[in-house]
Amino acid sequence: MAVFEKMRVSLALVDKTPLYGEQEAPARSRREFFEDAFRERRDFLPARGKAKLTFWPIAAPSGFVAGFFGREIVQKGHSGPETAFTEILIENWEISLFVMNVAADSQVCWMQIKSDVGSPKSILESFLKHISKKSSLSEWTPHVKYMDTDGFYWEAVRANKDVLTKLEFTFIPPNALNLRDTVGIFTRLANEQVHPDTITHTYRAPPGQMEPESELAGASAEIAMEGGGEAKAFAGKKKVYDSNDDRTREEVDDDDLPTPSQPSFIRRVIDRLWPT
User: If we measure between CA atoms, which residue out of 238, 272, 274, 239 comes closest to residue 258?
Assistant: First the structure.
């Protein structure tokens, strides 16, 4: 079985001041950004290491983009007995399937976990950092976040409510989510007036006095769990929850996976990961 990891990519608009006499061109929409980003082959390097990485797109149904992330693997091997098993270098590529819903209210993606390719989140961050350096795709700053679909945050804070001393939430303003009104008003005002890349709210209280299920804290947590930011919870110096450590994973039968030569099977993967 192939295992996939779920993430959301939020986009923050880069604030650019046009030069004198120039007019700033309107930014493409979030959906257009993703469609253009994943439209063609792109070669890039990971955040760490020197192994070459490549994204190779495949056709996907309307509203989705898909393709393979590949990593070049070079290892020592041996030729056949005709050459007395001479040592040679063998080049191979390991590939990991990627698929994303680019609808304005989604921008959720799944990527196959392959140890020889690398961490899905790390690979995707390296890819988006690479393309964001291109002038034609530099108007948005991407942020990749895990999604806590299973509600592990609530399990952690409820289990530790009597000893909680700090809650910390980081948001990406504005992002692809429909922010809850209470938190959304503040983050939108902060974005308009301060122009931050991210906003962090920190709440502290003596043990037992924190109300993690209050309207404000609850809305903040829901946004973070849906991939619109990050959440952390502490009991004194002990961290009892960190959304960066969370993973939502799903399995897909190997027989349902597309291949570079049979890309149409991507529909089976979409039906499995986005059930209707």
Answer: 272
**21-30: per-residue pLDDT in tens?**
444 555 688 8
Structural tokens at position 148: 């806590």
What is residue 264's three-state secondary structure?
Answer: helix
DSSP helix/strand/coil, 152: helix
The proportion of the chain whose per-residue pLDDT surpasses 70, expressed as a percent, equals 85
Contact 111, 123 (CB under 8 A): yes
- The residues pairing with 56 across neighbouring beta strands, listed in sequence order, are 68
Q: Which residues are paired to 94 by β-bridges? A: 71
Instruction: Check: CB of residue 59 under 8 Å from CB of residue 169.
Output: no
> Count H helices, E strands: the chain?
6, 12
pLDDT at residue number 20:
42
ω into 174 cis (within 30 of 0)? yes
CA distance 267 to 276: 13
pTM for this entry: 0.81
